[in-house]
Amino acid sequence: MPPTLSQLQFGRLRCLRAKLLKRYKHQPLVSCLAALYSCQWRRYEGNCTQPGDCCCNKLEGASFALLVAAFCVTLVFLYFWGQAENDYNDFDWFNFGNLGFWFPWSVVLLVIAAGFFTYITVLMLLAVCLLSEGQKLHLHWSHKVGILLSLTFSVVATAVLSDLWGNEWTTLLLSFQITAPYLHLGGVLLMTTLAWPIALHFFRMNSRVRRCLIMGVYLTILATVYLVPLGLYSPCIKKKGTLGPAPALIGHRGAPMLAPENTLMSFEKAVEAGSDGLETDVTISFDGVPFLMHDRTLRRTTNVHKVFPNRTDTPAAMFTWAELESLDAGTWFLSHNPFGTVGSLGAKDQQQAGNQSVCSLQAYLQLAGQTDKLVIFDLYRPPRGHPYRDTWIQRTLEVVQNESSINSSQVLWLPSDLRALVQEMDPELQQTSGSRLPLEELHTEHIVKLNLHYSSMSPELISDYAAVNITTNLYVISQPWLYSLAWCNGVHSVTTNAPQLLSTMSSPLFLMSPDEYNLMWILTDLLSLVLILIIFIFHW
């Protein structure tokens, strides 16, 4: 009986597929990939899987499973630490306080994580390419050691950082509100690419159990990736015309990427960069002069170890103002380069930075008064034995009211001690709370602004307080993606280390209407599904 038209067409399709799958033209490339994976240049010659064969033996299967696990773990750690960049400076100074010397540990950790991930990714690509060519896998023992080392490093680093720096997981969750749409696209692309080797080996297997297992796992992951947007929330997916104004910028200790923190130069740079406010930390000297210093001691940001070598660990408040004025508060910035930005400064700025001294509260307030900027500061109570231990609030108020040109309405008063007395002495101060309190208590204490860590960010919190005329400031936000998220959430202001960077942003990094996002999501999934069906039909 002569063949039917459909049989002829099917036969032609099989011939076309056979021609497309001929490998003799790129056998040198396959041999090269195999050699990189196995470290043996002749091992793979003619070593293809036959119909019914598995792609590898049990040991190599376990090695491949370990490779996949290492890929996932190193990816998670690299993403985790990459998104933590906003807090690298805090991490490095935390280590400085414990180790006693400065080193950019955060960047080193990022480079190591990126190196391990790159290595594992290359092995994954080699394995996928070999599987796509129907080759058997033989991973060299040195690569197996490398995989174990990468996996161990990522697991240990994640555990240690989770213990010491657990708040960064909140940062990770917040980042998904910006990156999730892009991660979804990447996940769909990856699953679509994996369809080729999976389909190839699926149709070469004789075991139904293996076929069901491989397809069950693949389809489960594929369906999960397709449906991820159903559980996605991002405040930056909003209707057009509903985005509010950009959050105002408050320079955290000035502009610490451009000048030594808490120096007059740093605040001048923050003003030049377009900051709407200036943030600092206030301590009172032994003879009653309020000055700017974040740390309990002078060790980190001055040359106290040279001028007063026997008082390195003495509290900063136990020095007189004359002693404080004799210290160099700028050279450390040039030598440590805490943000890696010193090289971008001109020779004049570097010279000026090296000549900075400890700044007084009076000079700080005078600058803010002259430039019409808001100020907010933490006020540290002096230690026991200090002459102003019990009158530190009153002494600070004297400087605000009588020794500077700033208006009280420009001061966001953050210290919670003796708040009722402060309100009575100067009602024009903008009372600011550093913690989330019940609304009744906030009104009782005349609170008009909240100063919260950025991990507290949520549109519900912002809108609930805004409804009772309480604005919100979040600290410390220095990365554009985090600033974008604050912008979409309706935050009123943010404290930042990078006013010179954030002031240039004209819109959030990610902003899309719900209709536009749904269209992108559906089209991406449909296109992926069509390509996967074509790949499976082709191999069938």
Please supply descriptive tags for the structure shown above.
540 residues; alpha/beta; 53% helix; elongated
The separation of the N and C termini measures 26 Å
What would you call the shape? elongated
Determine the structural class based on helices, strands and strand pairing.
Answer: alpha/beta
Uncertain segments? none
InterPro entries: GP_PDE_dom (IPR030395), PLC-like_Pdiesterase_TIM-brl (IPR017946)
GO molecular function: glycerophosphodiester phosphodiesterase activity
Main location: membrane
Family: Belongs to the glycerophosphoryl diester phosphodiesterase family.
Describe the structure.
- Helix content is 53%, strand content 8%.
- The chain contains 21 helices and nine strands.
- It has an eight-stranded parallel β-barrel, surrounded by four helices.
- The mean pLDDT is 90.
- The chain crosses the membrane at residues 64-82, 102-131, 143-162, 182-200, 212-233, 519-538.
Can you describe this structure in just a few lines?
The protein contains 21 helices and nine strands. The protein is 53% helix and 8% strand.
